[in-house]
Amino acid sequence: MPDAIPALKSHQPGKDILAETPAYDLIELFFFAYRDFVSDPDRILDEYGFGRAHHRVLHFVGRNPGLTIAELLDILRITKQSLNRVLKELIDKDFIESRMGTADRRQRLLFATEQGRELALKLAKLQTRRIMRALSDMEPEAKDLVSRYLLRLIDPDSSAHVKHLVFGSEET
Amino acid sequence: MPDAIPALKSHQPGKDILAETPAYDLIELFFFAYRDFVSDPDRILDEYGFGRAHHRVLHFVGRNPGLTIAELLDILRITKQSLNRVLKELIDKDFIESRMGTADRRQRLLFATEQGRELALKLAKLQTRRIMRALSDMEPEAKDLVSRYLLRLIDPDSSAHVKHLVFGSEET
DNA sequence: AATGATATGTCAGCCTTGTTGACATATCTC
DNA sequence: GAGATATGTCAACAAGGCTGACATATCATT
């Protein structure tokens, strides 16, 4: 096991302390970092009358052209009713386009429009800037290591799926 | 199939391009990792009739005994009305105790009760288990590197404050 | 061709957790 | 005593989750 956590506060005596000492630092840093990370897009989304939910949908559709509703639900892990609310707005405002499936005409294949791709890219660049600022002046292996850490943080059940989605072949 | 990532490939090695290529992998991994990371506590909080908002309050009060309302608001960056809603429930259910300030009697100093500390610890251990599983078999320097990465992801404005809160002297 | 399964859409209502604005109270500081 | 400060509270609203029920179109199977 890697280095133990620096002793943060003295606990009541008795329990097996070392193995169970909470990693307060990584827990809290994760909270603060994620909060700031999503705050960048928020400001821009506001101008369009969109929220974080719209961002997620737009992002994954942009990244996976032809995504079906079912696949999107599986990625976001929300109900179809929740998805539909924001998806409808994205379609109405012409950021996403929904086409009938060719093989299976029950399906709806989702595509980002030109406008949609532009917004998605703008938001991704914002977040990338923050990531690059963090990585700059760090060890060259930092990016790969962080990537591996985050992947291992994910539920083992879904990690293969995520790996495919993030790194895998461009197909869905 | 249209490619959603116009600027990603097949470009001359211009400096601008490189700097602007979205780090889709780290962006998406961050999303999935954070989602699973907070899902562990969710299940337990449910049994108590609490939500994520309660968790955050309980966590930071537990970690910083004697925290004032103003300091807690500064950490969470929510309105006092939002805070009060969940804080009241935590106090009513005897997970947090509010004492009048000694130096300044207008202040309320917050403390986790025995029950509160137990729950906070239980949740922190859950998340720690996930973190340790991720770190196991990784390079020994992984923990430190991830910690530095997350800290650098935070807004420069607040990073000193966060650093103090996470690593700093136990006092508030 | 009929039937059941599947993919999606939609209505209605509820919950949590964020927001703003207004106002009340106690206490501190000058 | 006056004004600033720390907190509490009421009311209303919004975003984005949820459940349950039901509708429609299409596919797959018999």
Describe this entry's structure for a reader.
The structure is a homodimer of 172-residue chains. Chain A is mainly α. Chain A has helices at 17-20, 24-48, 52-63, 69-76, 80-92, 114-135, 142-153, 156-167; strands at residues 67-68, 96-100, 108-112. Chain A has a three-stranded antiparallel sheet. In chain A, strand 2 (96-100) and strand 3 form a beta hairpin. The longest helix of chain A is centred in the first third of the chain and has 25 residues, at 24-48. The relative contact order of chain A is 0.10. At the A-B interface, helix 2, helix 3, helix 6, helix 7 and helix 8 of A face helix 2, helix 3, helix 6, helix 7 and helix 8 of B. The structure holds a DNA duplex (30 and 30 nucleotides).
Short description:
With 172 residues, chain A is mainly alpha-helical.
- Quaternary structure of the protein: homodimer
Sheet with most strands of chain A? 3 strands, antiparallel
Look at the structure and name the CATH superfamily of the largest domain in chain A.
Winged helix-like DNA-binding domain superfamily/Winged helix DNA-binding domain
Return the CATH class of the largest domain in chain A: Mainly Alpha
Radius of gyration of chain A: 20 Å
The ordered string of helix (H) and strand (E) elements of chain A is HHHEHHEEHHH
Overall geometry of chain A comes to globular
* Sequence of strands across the biggest β-sheet of chain A: 1-3-2
SS-derived structural category of chain A: mainly alpha
The poorly predicted ranges of chain A are 2-15
What are the salient characteristics of this protein?
homodimer; 172 residues; mainly alpha; Arc Repressor Mutant, subunit A; 2 domains; 7% strand; disordered N terminus; DNA-binding
